[in-house]
Amino acid sequence: MYLRSFLFLIAFFISTNAFAQTAADSVFIRKIFDEALTNGQSYKNLDYLSNKIGGRLSGSLEAEKAVQWSRQLMESYGFDKVYLQEVMVPHWVRGAKEKASIQTGKTKVEVPICALGGSVSTGKTALTANIIEVKTLDELKALGRSKVQGKIIFFNRPMDPRHVQTFIAYGEAGDQRRQGPSEAAKLGAVGVIVRSLNLFQDDFPHTGSLRYDESVPKIPAAAISTNGADKLSQMLKTDQNLKFSFEMHCQTLPDVKSYNVIGELRGSEKPNEIIAVGGHLDSWDLADGAHDDGTGCTQSIEVLRLFKSMNYRPKRTIRAVMFMNEENGVRGGRKYAELAKTNNESHVAAIESDAGGFTPRGFGIEGQPDKIKALQNWKPLLAPYGLHDIGPGHAGTDIGPLGEADKNATLIGFLPDSQRYFQYHHASNDTFDKVNKRELELGGASMAALVYLLDKYGLDGGK
Amino acid sequence: MYLRSFLFLIAFFISTNAFAQTAADSVFIRKIFDEALTNGQSYKNLDYLSNKIGGRLSGSLEAEKAVQWSRQLMESYGFDKVYLQEVMVPHWVRGAKEKASIQTGKTKVEVPICALGGSVSTGKTALTANIIEVKTLDELKALGRSKVQGKIIFFNRPMDPRHVQTFIAYGEAGDQRRQGPSEAAKLGAVGVIVRSLNLFQDDFPHTGSLRYDESVPKIPAAAISTNGADKLSQMLKTDQNLKFSFEMHCQTLPDVKSYNVIGELRGSEKPNEIIAVGGHLDSWDLADGAHDDGTGCTQSIEVLRLFKSMNYRPKRTIRAVMFMNEENGVRGGRKYAELAKTNNESHVAAIESDAGGFTPRGFGIEGQPDKIKALQNWKPLLAPYGLHDIGPGHAGTDIGPLGEADKNATLIGFLPDSQRYFQYHHASNDTFDKVNKRELELGGASMAALVYLLDKYGLDGGK
């Protein structure tokens, strides 16, 4: 026997146990994907949620229907426990469809807008004023009160198309929508129009929440489609004194009682250690909310269904959480964290799927470096399914508060391919027909594979 | 100075050159993607090819228009040389739209079919006969002549949905379409119906080439939609004696003169070393052929346009090749290889994009192990763009003959995400609206990044 062979044998015996473990894991993960790709039910369930229930903004009848539907669905799957967490949510309504037009001389051009979530109305009639285009909040501030007073401010900085990961571009451009209205109001503006956070040129306005600063007047704010924004910008170049006119009848009604919806498979060995996987049940009102975030809900339920169908009994407690009110308040996420603290719950990890039902690419992690490392060690088991991007990243809005409440919880965001997301996000074209069955089912399987590893090994070195 | 620091410094000086090289490459590749994501023209060009020219089966007027269009487009970009390679191609025509129905008792159910490419017609009227369902060629052979004689054979083995890489499923199921008709004819069958090679349940029949064995009679063969196949299979369970009837008026006309279309940027240092990047200009006749393979053509032209726009002067000669007749003959691919041999050309590599315009995932390579290794060494430069899957794999049908003619040429297939491809492939829904601009442009940039590295370093250890 040559030395190299001998050394190889030694190495072999040392690592046999690890190999055996890995081989079993590889087989189990393959079975998860086989089940999802042959009998996956995310697509069928998303069809129901999108087409039979539809858009489900917090406080709406549809949101209530979605609560009941998801509870019944999880009960029908025979999960060990299905329950609701009561939470009061905001109730903003859009009212009659918005209208907007640009007037220059005798020309009047209509452009597609929609109210930003939470905006006040323009009153009973349209608001008409001169409009000033800016690209940044700093540019607005530099104008000063004298130039802004009485005007509408038009934020027109496009998302940067150069980011391959489009959520970075969304993050960079989002200040216009979130802070823009109150920053403009501070300088006396009467209204705000924001270029839609959309990477494509089209006629869909994209809504989304604004954040009013309570110390300044609330002024009406709307998103304009990317084509509309270009049109407006072009017309402003030839007539700085053109008038912009828009009419919105949105209002905020009293808070409404709603719920997070939770299903559980109880852990056989460590029932008090929880691995949560979730999405948000509410959506904007303009469309089905198929990608945002019907996807995350149906995939999360699917994770538990996959385990049930494979007769896999987890060591730890696995939870599917449908958070309520991600879009305009995060009340469900905060309530979940509050109750986790009250009940002294211990979360190993929480995984959120809120980036669309596209082909899986990996997971973004918020957590201690050793835990990120532990997750990265599973790359060889996950790479065969296209899950290569495993590293630090934003995890999810709903699970953020849990990270504050339970410092030991590792927060994980499911990362699907991001190229198409911002064509549909918060717009009336976020509909079921934009979802591909295989891409969606692969997402549920990817999360199930990770939950399986988290359940089996934890994140504290295999305990 | 501690030993470790010293060793580190040594290592640093040794590798500084490599680091500097890598940093410059990283910057250049970033610029390629920036240009593609801000000013990419693949999408605009594909719009023209798909919507102004349309389906372009070999020998058709549209194929001729596509030749002229792609030549003019490359000339308009100012490539160093644009030229045609004459090649005779088959001229098969579908004729009047196909019809098919299932008859059981007094019930007649129409089902969607389309002739397989190259099929003979059913004659002037419909062909009606009993039909036998089989799943495999072996199952057919086991039936024997006594059972098959005078019947239509129905191949109904679905693509296996469990393969994450869907081309594997296509490869496994393809024998039914390619060999099925002649294998059935050998046993006296009068016609063949093949389940569409489609991973989704819908009403689109998917065409594609069959291979007639010249030693047996040519019998008419069609694809049936996946829903239609399920319907037929279900009805056969209750009535084995039902009649299947289909009518097709396709025919093969004399060969037609056509062309490969080639554009070049001439190498500044090693003009005789060629790096080719290509797709096929012909498509099936049922749709635009946007994904198959308008994508590959416009992306290949884009690779050269990107270099021109960045004032990058390649060391080696870079070629964009629009191959003619991939779908039903590979005559263009064979002509290209033949002329490469005649002209003593030396190809470093040939890259083919013929898997759709979806988000890039990597490259599949046919070549010597050391060259595959050399390509894998570039992973750190390519991974930031989602290009993780770099390893052995099928490269492309058009460049296959070149691999035979020039044994030193490394063949590379561009690998986009494969989940959606077989919903559109060879069917009437392979249209421009199924293409996402960002996904398409990322493909052109991915190929340009690889061509840049191949041009700069070659595959023989950095020469």
UniProtKB/TrEMBL annotation, chains A, B:
Transmembrane segments: none annotated. GO terms for cellular component: extracellular region; lysosome. GO terms for biological process: proteolysis. Residues 1-20 form the signal peptide. It is found in: Endoplasmic reticulum; Golgi apparatus; Lysosome; Secreted. Keywords: Carboxypeptidase, Endoplasmic reticulum, Glycoprotein, Golgi apparatus, Hydrolase, Lysosome, Metal-binding, Metalloprotease, Protease, Secreted, Signal, Zinc, Zymogen. Its main location: endoplasmic reticulum. SUPFAM superfamilies: Zn-dependent exopeptidases. Residues 260-448 form the Peptidase M28 domain. GO terms for molecular function: carboxypeptidase activity; metal ion binding; metallodipeptidase activity. InterPro entries: CPQ, Peptidase_M28. Homodimer. The monomeric form is inactive while the homodimer is active. This is Carboxypeptidase Q. It comes from Adhaeribacter swui.
